[in-house]
What does this fold into?
Amino acid sequence: MIRFQGPRSRAARTVSGLALGAMAAALALSACSSSNSASTSNSTSTSNSTSTSGNSSSSSQYSASPLSLTAAERTAILKTAFLTTSIAASSLNPTIVDGLEEAGRTYTQAQINQAWACQSTETCTVGKGSQTIAILDGAGGNLWREITRAAITLQAEAYPNVGTVIYLNANGSLQTMQADLKTLIARRVTGIVTYDDFGAAMDAAFAQAKAQGVPVAAFGGTPGAGADSAVVTQVQSDFCNDGTQMAETTAKMLGGSGNVAFFTGTPGNPQGAGWESCAQTWFAKNAAGIHVVDQSNTDWSNSGTVSATSALIATGKTINAVLYDYSNQTVNIVQTYQHAHLKVPNQVTWTSDNQLLQLWQQDQTSSDPWKLAYSSSINFEGNIALAGLMDSLGGQSVPASLTFPLPFVQAQQGDYVASQPADAPGPTLMPDALLNKLLNAS
It folds into this structure.
């Protein structure tokens, strides 16, 4: 997977899908080059009549139908994406801005319905074009992955020459993901966006895809620097900077002293290794009173998180804060401490989870309230990857790494939304009509 001062309620932060679409195109006016049409229409109903081969060198067929936005609308879409007004479009790579724009643009009800229908089928027709975009998921199935898949599918509808979207889920098996990639190569898809749960183990397979003329753009879970020559680009936050921000946030929570624990997923995963190392370094240089007394691996699973938390409790160590890179599983940390009738440590976690916010809100009136800081749910990573893939197919130069900021926000009363399911992700750039379908099905 996968961040300051925010509005007091999620309702105040959340921009409706229709408003987001109107907001998105201003990104193109100041920071983008691929969608800067003078058209004033925000609709994606541009004709798909110019259907051409996926191997054509024409860049226009790899451009989304045009948009335009005001500066105020640009600010609003960035605020929804990052939960803060401190991130300016000028500070981001234009391809990142393109992806955010395309994620939040206006979509018709028919397009929303089509994206929703695609969630239940492996191969889905989304337009009249001849190009095929594939989503290769290393371990899909949870709500975050489902929302991200739907966001990419909907975005693909903004490209007039995309006709088909394929989704393959390896369900956590490296062998299956490698086999799925071979299948997509054999089918001669135009390009692939992927969440790589297996890191560098996929390098050779991605290189083979490139050699066969099938470009790959990775997001979230990425193969790492060793795959720079094998993939178009790798989209993620800067793990080291993430760790620094987590450490700074923790130091403010604890007043510069206390014991902390680090939790991450699979042993040796680059995400955990990156942020943990830099958080440790920041503490050593800036908050010598804060001590990292535990580092645990959880596989980002329910059982793994409960087991790691139980083992931590059994040590008898006083833990003042837990830093974890998965908010959905932070719920298990909190509940394990509650079941043990112990004070819940402060929590600093990646992404947003409605149940976690509920637990935090409930405990604010108890005798032992705890603090919570969390980030945006960053479901837009896949949208940036698709924008990068299409830019590359259109002949534009795309950086090997597209990194975006991941600021943390302090939880506030009203962030929990009782009408949404437990694992609802908080504000997204997705149209409300599609997000509600996904939430109601979860």
Observations:
- The chain has 16 helices and 13 strands.
